[in-house]
Amino acid sequence: RCPTVMAPSTQQRRFSQASANTKQRAQMLIAKALETRVNGINPDECDAGSEDAFFVADLGDVYRQHMRWKVNLPRIEPFYAVKCNGDPKVLELLASLGTGFDCASKAEIEQVLGMGIDPQRIIYANPCKTPSYVRWVAESGVRMLTFDNAEELYKIKRFYPTAQCVLRISTDDSKALCRLSLKYGCPLDDTAKLLALAKELELDVIGVSFHVGSGSEDPSAFITAVEDARTVFDQAAEIGFEFNLLDVGGGYGTHNFEEIAGGLGPAVDKNFPPSVRVIAEPGRYYVATAFTLATHIIARRTVQDEMKGDLPSYMLYQNDGVYGNFSNIIFDHQNPVAKVLKDQNGFYYNSQPENTRLTEYSIWGPTCDGIDCITKSCYLPAVLDDGDWLYYTDMGAYSKCSATKFNGFSNDHDTVYVVSEPGAKALLDM
Ligand code: PLP
């Protein structure tokens, strides 16, 4: 089914014009932050590790994504999915902007509560929760939590019988980057039975949630899920529940957000009266493009391939890999693209060296594991060696949060913050 594509409103057009101007400012700020940090490091003399990979995060980008959300989905309240990137400044900004938070564990709930956030602004959106966490959360003031099976209902009855329960239903996530409905979500065939059990247990079920899969490429999946949620609302009414919450989950990409919103917003309005509160759990959408990662080349190996003539290619080893911030290659199906940040001739951001001869590289992380590979083949317009720097854009989602300390390498890299939006600056304590 094709979603109805609506013509952009005046507000939407103004918004995209404004963000084009500020995006230019953002590029300048990011370039300056990268250059200042890199130029302050002399790899021949610096303390061991001070040339570690680092992020530059533009909080203005997060702010713009929030404004883009408000313009396109004004009825739907975002609850940022902390799991995607728990950066404290991102959380601080989103808290000031008034979003809620989707937390998956005790630690995430503690992080958000520790910022002084009202527990009512949190949903504990993990359908299969650790029992001791449920006991703990009952004392924390957080009320909303999700479930999708009978055993979880018995657990909630035992440890938190006054919780506001939200039934997560399964979705068609076949076109998503990361599928979730293989693991979570109650099939529509079972929802009536599950709701009847909840009634018998005298639990308070307040609504329905779904997640169409992370990195969804399929706007129609949202529409189908909204219609399925409507069916479950009707079932619940027959059983005697008065549902008042719809949670349309996460899964929003950055490049086709307007297309998703153009289908989702009208579907919500068509199926649910204004009395129903509608929330969402976007993660990737808020942070993916806000973070740029700079990596240092620590070693190089020359590869002579006689089949390819006399031009050598090289294996480059950088100080961050799939066990670190490039965990997004393994867990999030990403293909980060290397660009030259600095070589012996100068500094490049948003431009590349004017060397028309391209050199072939494979790029590897620092650990001793053969799987630690960023790319098997790429071409860059420079002959790079150890001491040079690379950078990667769009490294904000599911990167640092799933990095390990394998081989003793750090998983806590510095973040240099820039704020390309005056509106965001005014909200931040920095
Ligand atoms: N909500 C839940 C329950 C999730 O499991 C996830 C991601 O796994 C999200 C929200 C965030 O999804 P995304 O980053 O695709 O928006």
Specify the structural class: alpha/beta
Mean pLDDT: 93
Task: Count up the helices.
Answer: 12
Number of strands: 19
Looking at CATH, which topology of the largest domain would you report?
TIM Barrel
List the helices and strands and how they pair.
Blueprint: H1 10-39, E1 54-58, H2 59-72, E2 77-81, H3 88-97, E3 100-103, H4 106-113, E4 122-124, H5 131-140, E5 144-147, H6 150-159, E6 164-168, E7 176-178, H7 188-200, E8 204-209, E9 214-216, H8 219-239, E10 245-247, H9 257-271, E11 277-280, H10 284-287, E12 291-303, E13 313-318, H11 327-331, E14 339-343, E15 346-347, E16 359-364, E17 373-380, E18 389-392, E19 415-418, H12 422-427
Parallel strand pairs: 1-19, 2-3, 2-11, 3-4, 4-5, 5-6, 6-8, 8-10, 10-11, 13-16
Antiparallel strand pairs: 1-12, 7-9, 12-13, 12-18, 14-15, 14-18, 16-17
Helix pairs in contact: 1-2, 2-3, 7-8, 8-9
The structure holds pyridoxal-5'-phosphate.
